[in-house]
Amino acid sequence: MTLRRIAAGLLLALATTVASTAGVAAAVVVDIGVAPPPPRVVAPPPPRAGWVWVDGYWRWNGHRHVWVDGRWIHARHGYRYVQPHWVQAGPRWHFVPGGWVR
Description:
Elements: H1 3-22, E1 31-32, E2 51-54, E3 57-60, E4 65-68, E5 71-74, E6 80-82, E7 85-89, E8 92-96, E9 99-101
Antiparallel strand pairs: 1-8, 2-5, 3-4, 6-9, 7-8
């Protein structure tokens, strides 16, 4: 077994332990060495009052990137929505899920 596989197994075990003890609010951390494909160019539907468009994004399913279509979500008064996105840190890629910020 390679060192990389051992490290991946330990990371998975740690993430599973943290998620099981943190309850419903647990976030899954995705930090991989595989760059996501370029985002798909999709024109969002026309604006809807009281709703925010969440852009589509590439999700890592443990083996490869899978496209998640955009969708409408209810707006939250006093908040703005940060779109889901990938951030490169050296040779690694970290997924930042979308969410509401004040």
